[in-house]
Amino acid sequence: MTTITLKVNGQSVTKDVEPQTLLVEFIRETLRLTGTHVGCDTAQCGACTVHLNGRAVKSCNMLAVQAHGADVMTIEGLAAADGTLHPMQVAFNQCHGLQCGFCTPGMVMSAVDLVKHHGAASDESVRAGLEGNICRCTGYQNIVKAVRSAAAQG
Ligand code: FES
Ligand code: FES
C-alpha cells in the first residue's frame, strides 16, 4: 500500500492505495464518486474522463499513485457549490446532447477542457476535439450543438 494525498473536487483526500490501482478505480470504488464511468478500461472510449490539474485525462489510463499531489475534478465537482449547473451541463440538457447518458460525464469533462483551451469555432473542430470520446448512442450532432452553444455563451 502507498499513501497518496490529492485534492478531489476541492477537498483534500488522503488514502492508502495498492500500487496497481487505476485512478478510475480509486475515484469510483474508494471515493464512491460513480459519476465517472468505465466503458472500456483501455483508454479508448473517454467515459472515464476527469480533469487532472485542469486538463482532461482518461482516468483508466493512469494509476492512482500518479495523481498524488494533483488537483482532480470529477463530474460531481463541476456544478457550483449551490447546485447551479455548469454552462456545459445546461447546454447538454437544452440541446438534448445525451440519450442513455453513459458517455455524458466524460463528454462534458472533455468538452469543458476543449472549449477552455481551444474554443469551439466550428462543428469540425468540436468533432476533432472530442474524438477520444465515444457515444454508443451516436448522438454526436446534438453533442456538437451543445458544446458550441456552451462556448457561445462564454
Ligand atoms: S473507460 Fe477509460 S477510456 Fe474507456
Ligand atoms: S448518450 Fe448513450 S452513450 Fe452517449
UniProtKB/TrEMBL annotation:
Its cofactor is [2Fe-2S] cluster. Residues 2-78 form the 2Fe-2S ferredoxin-type domain. Gene3D superfamilies: 3.10.20.30, [2Fe-2S]-binding domain. SUPFAM superfamilies: 2Fe-2S ferredoxin-like, CO dehydrogenase ISP C-domain like. PROSITE patterns: 2FE2S_FER_1 (PS00197), 2FE2S_FER_2 (PS51085). Keywords: 2Fe-2S, Iron, Iron-sulfur, Metal-binding, Oxidoreductase. GO terms for molecular function: 2 iron, 2 sulfur cluster binding; metal ion binding; oxidoreductase activity. InterPro entries: 2Fe-2S-bd, 2Fe-2S-bd_dom_sf, 2Fe-2S_ferredoxin-like_sf, 2Fe-2S_ferredoxin-type, 2Fe2S_fd_BS, Beta-grasp_dom_sf, Diverse_Oxidoreductases. PANTHER family: OXIDOREDUCTASE WITH IRON-SULFUR SUBUNIT. This is (2Fe-2S)-binding protein. The lineage of its organism: Bacteria, Pseudomonadati, Pseudomonadota, Betaproteobacteria, Burkholderiales.
